[in-house]
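thread: overnight batch results

M.L. [08:02]
morning all. the overnight job finished for the chain we discussed friday. pasting input first so we're all looking at the same thing
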Amino acid sequence: QVQLVESGGGLVQAGGSLRLSCAASGRTFSSYGMAWFRQAPGKEREFVCAIGWTEDSTYYADSVKGRFTISRDNAKNTVYLSMNSLKPEDTAVYYCAARAGAFGGSFPFRYDYWGQGTQVTVSS
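M.L. [08:03]
and the structure it wrote out:
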């Protein structure tokens, strides 16, 4: 069982930056594929980005490519989402997700564990 706890959300002006963190429990964090998803009010959950066991394998949604960066620190059991040039349309609850033993890609059903989410609000 893996527990995921997100932090770092908040209110930021358009053009600003935030860094989200997702702390994972468990001793096998390095074997999990990790991802960030987001869900805006009234919309379906949307893929943001994913990372494999190392930072050599990353994948981004077109909407965030070049602005967001996913990274991980296996020694700290933590995955990060650095968000720059934020836009009002980035406003959503951001969720961290983990898939045991494999890269998860962009489909939510592939992920085994989910955090509770952290709110990101970008004002115009």
